[in-house]
Amino acid sequence: MANDTLSAMRQSIIDGAPDTASTLAQQAIACGMAPIDAINHGYVVGMHDVGEQFARGQMFLPDMMASAEAMRAAMAVLDPELRKLGTERPKSGVVVLGTTKGDIHEIGKVLVGTLLTAHGFQVHDLGVDVPGEKFAAQARELKADIVGVSALLTTTMRNQKGVVEALENAGLRSRVKIMVGGAPVTRRWAEEIGADGYAKDAVSAVALAQQLMQQKLQTVS
Ligand code: HCB
Fold first, then answer.
1. Residue 118 confidence (pLDDT)
2. Spatial distance between the Cα atoms of 93 and 121, rounded to a whole number of angstroms
3. b/e for 106-133, b at 16 or more Cβ within 10 A?
4. Rounded to whole angstroms, what are the CA distances from 38 to 31, 85, 197?
5. Which residues line the pocket of ligand 1, CB cutoff 6 A?
6. 69, 18 contact by CB (below 8 A)
7. pLDDT tens digits, residue range 127-159?
8. Which among 111, 121, 163, 196 is most buried, taking Cβ atoms within 10 Å?
9. What is the pTM of this model?
10. CA 205 to centroid of ligand 1, rounded, Å
């Protein structure tokens, strides 16, 4: 992997420069770089730096929005490449995905959805600011195998518990596996709220979803 390219990708996010981010993504694909490496070792590193600078008061909300815009521009190039990986695969399972109520962070969730799709899952993305009851209603309607819940704020990660409760109240809990993720979320938190698993990134979310599907099939058979 070209370290110069990866650090230019990281910098394009810090600078909030969508055109540069997009051009670098196109160049990386042309040179044969794996899209997931560009995301994880380039752009996402930039996002983490932005978060740290914001926390230290060295960056402000408009800067963070510009960084998110640059990330979206890179993803617009890389997303179709990631999806190509899974076009020939049979359906692995149905996933309903969303960001919890009160939370509008979507980049990580979209990435999780893209990689799950690339690995043959049928993904229904409910978007952001999604109440627990909507997760439950959509899980019922779409006959979901897995519900994936994202939360990026310490205040909204509590609403992941609300999703677990909504699925319980709807009588769906025994049929639907729940996986949680997002920057403040931990394995311990997942256990505490009664979710079935935690994934730290999109690659591990795919592995977790595959594992949950196996567990589900074993319970049914
Ligand atoms: Co936002 N923000 N933000 N933000 N934001 C964070 C999250 C902070 C940590 C920044 C900081 O202070 N260090 C912080 C939260 C602090 C806290 O609660 N402890 C924060 C804050 C405070 C806020 C506002 C409150 C700021 C304000 O208004 N004063 C506000 C909240 C608005 C709201 O939601 N109600 C806000 C707004 C924004 C935007 C709009 C400017 C923008 C989001 C744009 C968008 O998504 N369309 C934004 C951004 C970009 C960030 C940072 C910089 C990056 C988030 C990101 O996209 N990361 C973030 C800093 C950080 O996270 N380090 C900062 C990259 C993705 C790829 O990682 O962790 O989201 P990810 O997802 C991973 C992983 O977690 C896992 O897989 C993904 C892919 O690898 N995963 C799952 C995620 N979901 C999963 C679900 C599963 O089932 C399984 C795995």
1. 79
2. 5
3. bbbbbbbbbbbbbbbbebbbbebbbbbb
4. 12, 15, 26
5. 44, 47-48, 50-51, 54-55, 61, 64-65, 67-68, 102-109, 111-112, 148-150, 152-154, 179-184, 199, 201-202, 205
6. yes
7. 999 999 999 999 999 999 999 999 999 999 999
8. 163
9. 0.92
10. 17
